[in-house]
Amino acid sequence: EVGPDLREFINGNLSDKKVWEEYKGNLKRQKGERLRLPPWLKREIPIGKNYNKLKNTIRNLNLHTVCEEARCPNIGECWGGGEYATATATIMLMGDSCTRGCNFCSVKTSRKPQPLDPDEPYNTAKAIADWGLDYVVLTSVDRDDLLDGGAEHFAKTVLQLKERNPKIMVECLTPDFRGDLKAVEKIAVSGLDVYAHNVETVRELQRRIRDPRANFDQSLSVLKHAKKVKPNLLSKTSIMLGLGETDEEVHSTLKELREAGVDCLTLGQYMQPTKRNLKVEEYVTPEKFQYWETVGNELGFLYTASGPLVRSSYKAGKEKKKCTAKWLSCLHTYFFPVHLSR
Q1: Span 17-42, mean pLDDT?
Q2: What's the number of domains the chain is made of?
Q3: Residues annotated in the binding site, as ranges?
Q4: Global pTM?
Q5: Which of 264, 268, 266 is nearest to 322 (CA)?
Q6: Residue ranges at the known binding site for [4Fe-4S] cluster
Q7: Can you give the residue range of the structural domain that contains 213?
């Protein structure tokens, strides 16, 4: 059986509640047990004309996507986009090997990744132009082997994209750059529209979930500094649920993020990508995800997307439009007259 569509989760139109309300399988893991995938998390095998076209373009230009490297469950929908819809992808810059090894992530790790491809900013902009996208998400592996963590490479890619299409919206989902705020600043002033950096999980689970070189306060400083440097920039972060967090920990984390000035928030279900990664501790129900979306909105986030299959970059363009509308409204109300500039 196939569970309700993700749009129903986000919009609250759970017309087919029976599929998941009557599910009798365990949702919380017992010691020594591996949970079965509940029906609302099952997805179709990715196929289609747009999917194949996008995949071939990525291969030909030697690009990488987080969609593939992180084994995202939404790859079929985002890359396929329907027969006539625009396909979208999250480009992963600086190679496919990360210098860190977070316990939830399936991306390859290496102490000495390959050198940066100097043609990657150009090739990325060319691919995006060929696809005709009006919104693109750029992310990357961690590159602790580089002096600036790859910040200049990010900035060059944004510049190439904006030169080809000044109207394109660019979101950068960045590493923490080991807390180097100059690197954060370099990207924040590069011309992008959304600065994203994921805290990944609640404060209390950081050491178990993330690489030891990452921590909650360091991530908060990245998000805060991006806004400090460019106040009109939208900031965004994402949290995975199902790793053993408590409701109190989630609520406390959301409150801290909002107090730090984060504008947009996404919450999604953690799904174990390989046997080497952390096991799922709990499959959170769609109803509970709806609850957290309500909490996020009540705390004052400009936009909260919360659902089992929601991922940091899922439908990012749609999310950006909602955030921008609310952001402009806030600026008009509290700081009028204001002239926005990028």
Answers
A1: 66
A2: 1
A3: 67, 72, 78, 98, 102, 105, 313
A4: 0.77
A5: 264
A6: 67, 72, 78, 98, 102, 105, 313
A7: 47-333
